[in-house]
Every structure is written in C-alpha cells, then in structure tokens.
Amino acid sequence: MLSRRNVLKTGVLTTGVVGAAGLASPVLGRRDAEAAEPAGGAGPEAIGAPAVIPQFAVPLTVPPVLSPLLSSGTTDYYLMTMKKLSKEVVPGKRTELLGYNGLVPGPTIRARKGRRVVIRQTNLLDTPVSVHLHGAEVPVDSDGAPMDTIAPGGSKVYTYPNNQPAAPLWIHDHAHHHESEHVYRGLSSVYLIGDDNEQSLGLPSGPYDVPLVIRDGRYDENGQLVYIMDDFRNRTTITVNGSPWPYLRVAARKYRFRVLNSANTRFLSLRLSNGGTFTQIGVDGGLLEAPHETAVLPVSPGERADVVIDFSRYPVGTQLVLENTLGPGPVEQVGKVMRFDVVRTASDDSTVPARLATLPTPLPATVSRSFVLRMDEDGRAEPQAYINGRSFDQARIDVRIPWGSTEVWTVSNANTTAPHNFHLHLVQFRVLERNGQPPAPGEAGLKDTVRVLAGETVKLLISFRSYRGVYAYHCHMFDHGAMGMMGQMEIY
Prior knowledge:
Blueprint: H1 4-10, H2 16-20, H3 30-35, H4 44-47, E1 70-71, E2 75-87, E3 95-100, E4 106-112, E5 116-123, E6 131-134, E7 155-160, E8 167-173, H5 179-184, E9 188-194, H6 196-200, E10 209-217, E11 237-240, E12 243-244, E13 247-252, E14 254-261, E15 268-272, E16 278-283, E17 286-294, E18 297-299, E19 304-310, E20 319-324, H7 331-334, E21 336-345, E22 367-375, E23 385-387, E24 399-401, E25 406-413, E26 420-424, E27 429-434, E28 449-452, E29 457-463, E30 469-474, H8 478-482, E31 486-491
Parallel strand pairs: 2-5, 4-9, 10-14, 13-21, 22-25, 24-31
Antiparallel strand pairs: 1-2, 2-3, 5-7, 6-8, 8-9, 10-11, 11-12, 14-19, 15-18, 15-20, 16-17, 16-19, 20-21, 22-23, 25-29, 26-28, 26-30, 27-29, 30-31
C-alpha cells in the first residue's frame, strides 16, 4: 500500500486545483471526465483499463449484527479483528480489501444508551491502525486518536459508555497517514446506539431498518482497487455496503435507511429517480425534533442521514433508482447509487410521528473562536492543507478549552474551488448559521460533521461537558486530513 510519504515522492498526489474542482458541481459527462484527468498523476494508461462492472446486477447485502462474546448486567463485550480479505466486486475477479471480522463493511454493533460496550480490537494487518468511533462521546484513551495506534499484531481495548441519545455512529480507521487508504480499502463499520425514546416511536425496525454505507472506488481490469491520494475523478464505481450499484427488493411499506457517506472525498446529493421524497428523521447525532420531507439529501464524507421511504406509494413492479446529482465523473456511473425494486405487498404497523425527540436547550456561549480551512490549490507538486494557516503537528495543542464551557466556532473555507467539511471528535454541536442564514431542516439536529463549501462560513454552538483530554478536529475528507488539515483541542 502507498503511504502519504510514498505518494508524495512518486508525484501522484493530484494538485490542489484539480483535486478540488468539481466536487460541488453538477455531474460531468464522460468526455469532460476524461479531459479532467489529474495533472501530474498516473493516467489511465499507466494504471490499466478500468474494470467493467454491470449495474443493478447484484443484491444489496446487509452487514450482520455482531453478537457480544459476553454480557454482564452493565456491559456487552465484543471481539473485532482487522485483517485482509478478498471479495468479488468486479465480476469474475477477487478484490483484496481490509475489513473488520472479514467483512466489508464490518458487522454492525447495536448498542443501548446507558449500557457500556467494550471491544477488543486486534490488528492483523501489516500497518498500524487506530479505531475511531465517529460521533461518540468517549474517554480519550478510547477515542482512536490519529497517533494512538495499534501496531501490527497488537490489540487494544476500547470502552464506549454510550451516554448519548440514539444515533447512527461509525467505526473507522484513524491512523494518521494511513486512514485515507485504510478506509478506502474497507475499514469501516456501522455502530447504532438505540434508546427508549426511539424504541417507543414505532419507526420501521428489524429487517426494515437498513444501513446504506456508500462510497466510491477505482477498480482496474484485474479487479483491484487503485489507490492514489485525491484521485476522486477516477473513483467512479459506486458501492453500497461493499457491492457495486446493487438492487434491493422491497415490500410496499415503510423502510428506514441509515445513510452514511463513507467516501474519502466525494460529496453526495441523493434523490429518487421519480422525484419522490425522503422523510428525514435524523442526522449525525440522532433524531430531529420533527421529521421533514425533502427530495434532495446532501451528505458529505462522514455525515449520516436517517430517512424513511414509504414504498406503499408505488405499485408492485416499480423500480426506483437512488441517484446522485453531484460530480465529478460520468453521469451513467457516479450519477447512480442503487435501485429499489418493489416486489410485494406487506402489512405495515410502523409510523413516523410528528414529534421525534426533544433536543437539549442550547447553553449560552462564553467564548468565540474562528477556524479557517485552506489547502494549496496553485498546482504545486506537494500540496498541503491547513487550519488557521498551520498543518497538523501531533506535538502541538491548537486550542485549550475549560471543561464545562460552551463556545461558538466560526468555520470558514478560504479556498476558491476546494470544498471541505469539518468534524470534531468527542462532541455533537448545533449549526447556528450557514452563510449568515439559519440552518436548513436537515442541519437542525445534533451534528458532528458539517460541510463547508468553497467560500462558505458556518457557525457552530459546542458544549464541552463530557470528558477531558486531547481530541482532534479536522476536515473529514480523508485525503485532506492526511495532507494536514487537522488540529488538536485540549479540554481541561
């Protein structure tokens, strides 16, 4: 595998300008995509022909729920192992991937608020890893910090208190200079916290509650994933739960989908091909106060969206494509995600109530801070990325925050073309403003990741009232984080 250092030495890191252009623009046609091959990088002829993969030819697989090895009155104990595996993605070929417990994505963990989860993670890879539970309030020794790694052959025990409301979280690798490639190759797993309030609502559950882990990849004619940092223009195969452009046979009833954009850099804007709507019920940190109907679902890397689709609106025999309206890439590839096939009628006693949750009353802020995200986009050979003009330094604490305080963080994107997003470890925040305007309904809940397009500014309200220690904040476009767009905060 390529480390970031080796990527830079071989000159295949795309330039800031080309590496950023188009992420928030409409889908490119095939000819435009070919013309936009990253400057300075290895072109298609150097890599080999891209794989030919049929669309809607394989069923969606749903990651199994992992059973605890042992349970006590307060705690569930699990074993997870990171190791190489092979899987058929390109027909007739076996792709080498990295997974948890031999699966991509790994098995789902279903936790309960107030009940601890303890996971012993073992690293059978040949590179260091760090296991981060994205979106969780956890003590610092279980956060999975970028430099708190597990050596090859080693193990580490992570303890998750689960003292937060029901939420769709995400386990992924976070070893600095390795996370970009590790997650690209499969180190990703869904972690769902449930609670009594969520259970009482009557939302679709059991087989009608389905995670959708979406990402893009570049596969060569031999079926292997090609990893080049910031190579998003050539990552034009869309997978859901590890399968390329799958189909899901559904009954004519309501389904709940936990949508996760696990891509390294690709932004998604999802819609149904018939113009139908999603009922959005939740975001990163859990349920919204009230559901809202939307025909467009924007999800940047690391963000989650909790939605219900009511297939009873459609007659048996209907086929609906889940589409993506953002580029770059050929619309016939990156413009399609998966297909829903309505194949039968079914009874349905699930419901989406008008009131979902009560969010905590925001506390008054006593401190305001500003953060400027920027990456080199001038075509230099070794572009870097920065927060407030500085690249990540593990020996440096960038922000010191008194425990119990509430702050307003203003996060701006100083680039002219490159989009970014912003993720904080440890805390969920509220979006107060986007470009001076109130947040849209889809950003009105508890968030841990927020998109910040070129020239945009978002204002966040954050309370630091759980754990003390040093935690990271960074752009959650993995390639940008690996290029240095990351800082450290100490809550003391």
